[in-house]
Write a structure and sequence with these properties.
3 helices, GMP Synthetase, Chain A, domain 3
Length: about 150
């Protein structure tokens, strides 16, 4: 993967990927907000793709992330809480498995920060809270093979 960021003017930059490009417009959206959006976008795509591959449908998906950062530089992430809200035609156990597969295996952005950031999650499925403030297993990612995903993953 290769990305080139070029200064345009003031605090605007263009990011070019191998597939497309986009504008980073600071301070409208800071690089750290883009970073957090990428983390959340990564896991959100998993929560759409995993069920689809298994013959289920997810609707009304919303993933909210809240980060606590160091107060002084470097202002790295100390903790991240993710709240998953979605409806589906699957049971709660299956819905929780999709989230865990994303967190433990598929989402490369989460797995990039998991050794240095305490990650917790809540799952609200079909209006019912099925997991609340659960702690993600820390360190290194999982070796469990859930199969391959076709989607936005890079």
């Amino acid at each position: 993967m290769k990305i080139t960021v070029s200064h345009l003017d003031a605090m605007r930059f263009e990011a070019k990927t191998q597939k497309s490009s986009f504008i980073i417009d600071c301070p409208q959206i800071s690089p750290i907000e883009y970073f957090l959006s990428g983390i959340i976008g990564c896991t959100a795509t998993d929560i759409v793709m995993l069920p689809k591959q298994q013959g289920f449908e997810v609707t009304n998906l919303q993933v909210e992330g809240e980060v606590v950062r160091n107060e002084s530089a470097p202002k790295k992430f100390n903790s991240l809480h993710l709240e998953y809200r979605f409806d589906s035609n699957a049971d709660d156990i299956q819905a929780a498995r999709w989230v865990m597969a994303s967190l433990e295996t598929y989402c490369s952005t989460i797995n990039t920060i998991r050794d240095s950031t305490a990650i917790t999650y809540t799952i609200i499925h079909n209006g019912n809270m099925i997991r609340e403030n659960e702690t993600m297993i820390s360190g290194g990612g999982s070796t469990v093979d859930f199969g391959s995903l076709q989607g936005c993953n890079a």
